[in-house]
Design brief:
2 strands; disordered N terminus; 5 helices; mainly alpha; globular
Length: 109
């Protein structure tokens, strides 16, 4: 239990982006951490929930629905592919790229 609490506390440390924005929570961790998330159910849940919540928040603030129904498995699979190809990126940066791709797809509909 103490180990899980320590992991969650580390996930909550903020990290700044070059653009001056701050990503907090699981999104501040690297894609390498995303790829290793399955080693702990607590970390897996935290990372996946953070990404889905982030994308959902952007969806709510968007002018149109970018999520298109919100396929949790598709979002997680997209993040897996993205993080495998860019393991040093932050989860939050990858999630923003996902949201931008979803917004582009929504504009074509």
């Amino acid at each position: 239990m103490k180990r899980a609490l320590a992991i969650v506390m580390m996930l909550l440390l903020p990290t700044s982006l070059n653009a001056g924005s701050t990503i907090v929570g699981a999104g501040s961790q690297s894609c390498t951490a995303w790829l290793n998330r399955k080693k702990s159910l607590v970390v897996k849940a935290a990372f996946e929930s953070w990404v889905v919540g982030f994308v959902s928040g952007l969806n709510v603030s968007a002018e149109r629905d970018i999520v298109g129904g919100g396929d949790f498995s598709a979002i997680v699979a997209w993040m897996d592919r993205r993080c495998k190809s860019n393991s040093s990126d932050q989860i939050g940066v990858a999630a923003l790229d996902l949201a931008m791709e979803l917004a582009g797809n929504a504009a074509k509909r």
